[in-house]
Amino acid sequence: MAPPNQILGEKSREVPMRVIVHGLHRTGSLSTRTALHQLGIHNCYHMADVFANLETDAGLWIRAMQSKFGDAGKDDKWTRADWDKLLGDSQACVDVPSAFFTIDLAEAYPEAKVVILNRDPEKWYESVNGSVAPNMKPTSAIRALQHLYLATLLPDFRQWTRLVKAIFQYCIPFDHATEKDKAIAWYNESYRRVREAIPADRRLEFSVKDGFRPLCEFLDVPVPTVRDEQTGQVTDAPFPHVNDRASFDMLLRRRTGERMRRANRVLWQRFCEAFTVAALGCAGYYVWKGRWGVRFW
């Protein structure tokens, strides 16, 4: 049970913050999250956690963005206690929105190590352009109408649209589909700032292609191993590879389908409720008329 003064959905610090990963969307963030969980470092907060808790977490992230990037940010920097409300049950974080705040989080949690999750900027741009960007900012009238339909009927999707609006207002000030140079410059600048702010002995330059060993050595945890069934030799376990573009598209279709089914159920329920109210109203009217001896036809 939450403390009496704690807002529903807000957390308090339950586990130590151990790892802050500066990994923007489509840099291997979900693979890294899976790897950290495999190493016993969990929960690793990811956009997947936002989706799972939209009605509570989206509003907190919007407040964090307004505090840092809005006018209020001049006097309203988030403290460790503020971040604990979002990340109190997490030992690590990766992906956006947390990657928008890597430096702030590193200051709030000085005991945490920082992993810089790298990907070639050109490949990053193409990956985002073919996956995340069209989902966040619809590029067709049909997709825009679909988003409007979902936002009208589903409270959690309304929170998602609010969060997306805040992300583009405060954090991603360009059109990814049409402003490639700005997108790549923004990407490179975000990494430059983190490298400039975080001492070299506190950070690890890492790519999912590097495998477990450099990450485990940096975090001072054992390297997971597997035994080769043919040779019997024990080798480093393969680094997880999840959420490639095909998997992302499949997940998006499944998530959209589930949302559409929920929205359709809500619409049908509202229709039935309206029909019932109308029917009862008509019945009541005829009963009232009949009571006074009025002919109906």
From TrEMBL:
It comes from the Eukaryota. The chain crosses the membrane at residues 267-288. It holds the Pfam family Sulfotransfer_4. It comes from Claviceps aff. purpurea. This is NAD dependent epimerase/dehydratase. Gene3D superfamilies: P-loop containing nucleotide triphosphate hydrolases (3.40.50.300). The keyword Transmembrane helix applies. The keyword Membrane applies. Keywords: Membrane, Transmembrane, Transmembrane helix.
